[in-house]
Amino acid sequence: MSNSGGSVTGALAADGVSFAYPAPRVSSCGVHGTRHDGTLHNVSFHLAPGSSTALVGNSGSGKSTLVRILLALAKPSAGTVALGAREVKPGPARSLRWYRQAVQYIPQNPAGSLDPRMTVSQLLREPLRQLRVAGNHRALAGEALERVEVPAGLLDCRAGELSGGQNQRVAIARALAVQPAYLLADEPVSGLDLPLRNTVLSLLGTLVRQEGLGLLLVTHDLSTAARVCGTTAVMAHGRIVEHGPTHRVLDSPGSPEASALVQASATLHFPQASRPVPRDDA
Ligand SMILES: Nc1ncnc2c1ncn2[C@@H]1O[C@H](COP(=O)(O)OP(=O)(O)OP(=O)(O)O)[C@@H](O)[C@H]1O
């Protein structure tokens, strides 16, 4: 099945985006005059249909802020966000319906955002109703469920009756139900056990390769980037400091920030203590 994305075509792009959170007069810890130099600086980013980009970077580098701006939840102080030829700005819900249909968000711990008292069918139909998507909503819900390989027989079960893995898929199906062209996923597998992480990552990869969705995957885990995403963008201090084919960025990083991430990841996966001890056969 092809995705419609609300019949929107074209790339999702941020062009020269800058953004600063408003400086609070009194911060939550009671300090006056907190200074904000800006969170994003002149960020340009481009995601084509059927392609996948990992957005990596240290904590606080600006990844989630960029996602918020791409979702039209925050207004950049400079630069633009556009889908195809159409510029996108935060605004009233009705003016953004087309965009909310085309670009869906998968949050961290997506299953945790499901109300356990609601049935799978209710959960999947809710965004269809909110975005006033045309068509038979129960049928669209069933189709979305099939795409994540959950039996349509579970439509009338309550989320609280399903396993964690099934709920994780239901949460992804909820984003797919409105037939978006793009998925923006913020650490969607953090907190999952390894088998479930693998299942969800395979599913996301399939959606990109076989169904032509565009995927932006925010992750701290470079092995996740390598597994799913054709390109990787590295953020540091509110800038994209490197963006290229994932294998190139990971094998020969061209920026100190990417090098540091690759090194830190290698240390995490192969800590000194667990490295094989070289045999002294000589
Ligand atoms: N609502 C907010 N108000 C003020 N400052 C914020 C707010 N949200 C984030 N920030 C600041 O903006 C900067 C970028 O934060 P952001 O959450 O985008 O980083 P991140 O790369 O997604 O981090 P993480 O990997 O930890 O989620 C940080 O310095 C953060 O403290």
Automatic annotation (TrEMBL):
It comes from the Bacteria. GO terms for molecular function: ATP binding; ATP hydrolysis activity. Pfam families: ABC_tran (PF00005). One of its GO terms (biological process) is transmembrane transport. Transmembrane segments: none annotated. Residues 12-262 form the ABC transporter domain. Gene3D superfamilies: P-loop containing nucleotide triphosphate hydrolases. PANTHER family: D,D-DIPEPTIDE TRANSPORT ATP-BINDING PROTEIN DDPF-RELATED (PTHR43776:SF7), TRANSPORT ATP-BINDING PROTEIN (PTHR43776). Belongs to the ABC transporter superfamily. This is Peptide/nickel transport system ATP-binding protein.
